[in-house]
């Protein structure tokens, strides 16, 4: 592995990590900055839309605002580099805590795979495409 490949892999891992944090922080400008122009996102695996970053943000805002909290956890990352393009696959577990009608809290868990296409831009690596692939849903409520 040469220095450029190491650098590319570190930067792509940083993008994957920032994605999780920006969702949980609801930092929509920083979230949008992770994506290349004309990026597409496919969130249909859990009932979301297929669309642009703006489409996904419009979907996510009310979902995340309805929660007490969430924690997006991504791991087991595989990256394949091809010049200024890359693909990545990572596992994610997303616990999300809500409140029941009686006021008590409950946490549900979504497990998924992210399948990504990334591109090197003038601003560094960015998502060109992000697809959610459903693994599981555990809802004890």
From TrEMBL:
The domain of life is: Bacteria
SUPFAM superfamilies noted in UniProt:
NTF2-like (SSF54427)
* InterPro entries registered for this protein in UniProt: NTF2-like_dom_sf (IPR032710), SnoaL-like (IPR037401)
**Per its record, how is this protein called by name?**
SnoaL-like domain-containing protein
| Residue span(s) of domain SnoaL-like | 4-130
Pfam families membership: SnoaL_4
